[in-house]
Amino acid sequence: MTSNLLDDDMALALADLLLGPMPTQAPAKEPEPQREPAPEPEPLPLTIDIVVIPDPPPEVVEVPDDEFRSESSRWRRLPGMHGVLFALTIAVGLVLRVVNLNAVGLNSDEAVYAGQGGSLLGVSDLNEHFSIFRAHPLLLQFVSGSVFHITGPSDHAIRLVVAVIFGLGSVVATYRLATLLYDRSIGLAAAALLAVLPYHVIISRQVLVDVPMAFFAILGVTAAYKAVKVDDRRHLYLAFFWFALAAISKEVAVLLVPMLMAWLITGPPKIKIRRLVGPSLVFAAIAVPFPLTRLISQPGNASQFFLWQFTRDPNHSPDYFARVILQFSGWSFLGLLLVGVAILGARRSSADQLVLWWIGLFGLFFQFWPTKLFPYLFLILPAMAIAAALAATRLVDATTSVLRMRRARPSRALGTVVGALVVSLIISSGGIVLAGPAAELDGFGDFDIEVQTFAGSREFSEWAYDNTPDNSRFVTIGPSLGNILRFYGRRDSVALSVSTDPAKRNPAYVPLANPNLAMRQMSVHYIVWDAYSADRSAFYNSRLRDFARKLGGEIVFSVYADGERIVSVNGPAPDGADVRIVVWDVPGAGTTTGGSRQEGIS
Amino acid sequence: MSLPKKVLAMGVLLIGLAPSSAQAEELQTGPVIEHVIIIVEQNHTFDSYFGTYPGVNGIPDGATSILYDGSVVAEAGQNNLSNGRLAALDAHQSGAMDGFVSAQDERGFNGELALVTRGRESAPVLWDLADEYVLFDNYYSSAFGGSLANTLHLFTGDDHGVTADSKDSLPALRTLEAPTVFDRLTDAGEDWKLYVGRLDEIDPEAVIAGEYDRLDTTTPSALYWAPMLGMPRFWTDPELRSGLVDQESFYRDASSGSLPSVSVIIPQPTDHPAGAGDQGLTRLQSLLNAAIKSPNWDTTAVFVVWDDWGGFQDHVAPPTGFGFRVPLLLISPYARTGYVSSTELDHTSILNFVVDQFDLESLTANQASSNTFDDAFTDQPRDDRRLATNVLLDPTPVGTLRQNQTTAVLYLVAFGIGTIALLALWRRPLPLLTGDSE
User: What is the pTM of this model?
Assistant: First the structure.
């Protein structure tokens, strides 16, 4: 039946619909840059490479382009069903990002960023536990510290701010960008996909630097495209301003600048590099203080971080990111993404190339960078969503062109296809959101994602705050739990797995050259075992438990979970429950009396 | 003034005079001590540990002393000094306090060792504790001589004529019927434990049979450091016997929050100069940390006391009836911070504190008349709770608040400059910078 429908003409039509007009043609829905008649008498150029453009008065730029004008006015008055669907997208995105948001405490990275924020702006005594100079710049930390000034060091408050402003904000910004690049349908589809993609939901629910970085990157790309599309160089300044904010969120966003330059050189009508000098100064003014202050205040630390970053051993196999996308976005999205990239590559319109550069440059960088961590792809997820939305649109267009013979309605078909995909993703995301502490156990373990912190770590840290001396020091298997302990418990820690080799060690951590001696000499006072770290390192798991046994540790705290939730905190082990955290009080000085036998002296 | 106004005025006056509920609550609060821990260390004078500590009655200028740097202590076994009654009297020189070296030399010990004093470098934990809590610089041992006479004062309120640390004293100890503080506690229904290092090395049968009196046996030192261990009834009476436990039990009891009302610890290793170097101080630190970590800590007072002078010099002539000064530290959430108490005290003061704290029947007139520790406590517990810790491991590196805030200001300025530049260039892009000038 189907094969009968796909005759040669239809196949050609299908290819045309899938790919859109060929690159030699004007891009679909992307008219050549042109300006409306303005108060200036000179006609505006079609290209911007060699013609000196007079400074337009601001009012001229307000309405420079039909499409942009329609986009911006559309922004104000979303018509009918489109507006309803957009509102629904935002509502669902919001629910997925805030429900059960604080069921589990901050994970290690979140605790570091939140703690740094408090340290930076002098909230509570967090400055005694967190150095402001660690792996990344400090924009998110500034936000954290500012929020904490109002709320106190509240994990829930900062998660809400990040999830709503940057996470959900990315969805809105992606809608705007995709609408500007293509059309409203693609904008809505991209926003809907992004709003419900488990990968995006998981990460935007966390206090991670990737979230604001991606948000500002979308804004920057939008401004850059607008600068070219409406031929208003002022938007280049804005683009670099947003890029700078992205770069001071996470340094890898510096690559947005070469990405933009590559696109400007290869994509749209050529643009002089000199045009980027001014915007670059705006970028530099904002972005440079971070490395500068760091080099000045802690030169040794900075160079050690540099050494560590560039000599780290690969931590995952090359297929890591593919598996991440597959696991946390699904086959459907991956398929659409691949089709979308193929369409982009085949068409290579100006907008297509921008999306391709975005995905390609960062995708290659992350792929070849030795360290691969779960949130890295978050930066290019908006571009991926746009590509997938484009593919969905084209596939539906192609399909309905066939079905049109049967009076099918393309918009309804598109809505049905994207809607079905979105619903399936909502189910996946919702499952993760509602699973809370259990989520890490069910399929997350392979990815080292640290998105659902090990259940009980917040409870343990709060116990430590309430029940242990202020200057207590804990030893853990790995350093992750220590970061959480510092944020909630304000207690210092060391980890067995921290290397004594500076080149292989995060300089933020102190190595334990002789853990046995440190415990016997009472430089360390408690031993903490956690299931999460134990699973990652059998060797240090064994070592830690040996120390607890040899040093006569007394169990003083424990957390049990039944896979769904914490079932016992500092109580007896319920039947069938898994132990998640155990704390031993170690007396130090050994448990044997030691020393020489003393008899007959007084 | 009309009657209603008078009534109103009286009412206002009464309201003003009556303590508010908050004030009343404050009035009712005070040191809440439910657990007393007494750690008995060995053989040091006040000057030998705190003679150079700032703000105390320490070694006078010009007095001879040797600051410990490890070189004086040669080999294990060569560090001991005579601490007997006769040596003490020779050192005392009727109050001249100038016979410490000769008293040792005459008895074949290294007299120079008597002049050794430790500083922050060589006794960091003790000095840190003094910084944080209360140090007593007018606290005396209760008798000239060694452990037995002094610990008898500590636990019974008198030496009962037992003055020598020798086998000759053991028979008298076995037949001593004077009540101890543990008897009083038992009678009052208060729980107690005597935590003894190497308790398993004491043979109860040998104590009961008097075998340790014989010259061909070696007497465990613990019998002198805790005289109850030389009293057969503490081994035969099940109730008393149950209070004798090994020091390892202290860690378990502290960790689980089940410390008794009174804990007496005779640690091993102790910091006896004939002992194993600084292992005694390390053990002391470990015991203190266990107490500070304990869930019982909020209502605990720890006395760290040295039982006798150990042969070391001290420059203060003791009042009549007392032995040389020995160190005492009070560590408690209710202890004043960095306070040096100069109240005249001796071992029976600690006993008196226990008697008073748990409403026990007095043991002796000495105990009942001894001064107390009132000036050393505060009404409100301190906010912090800190372990005696070694700084042998670097802390996790952090910056100072000032550095952080300076960085924050710098960032804000940079952000402001960038934003202003953006706004300025938005309104009027510079042709030179935009490449549009030609």
Answer: 0.81
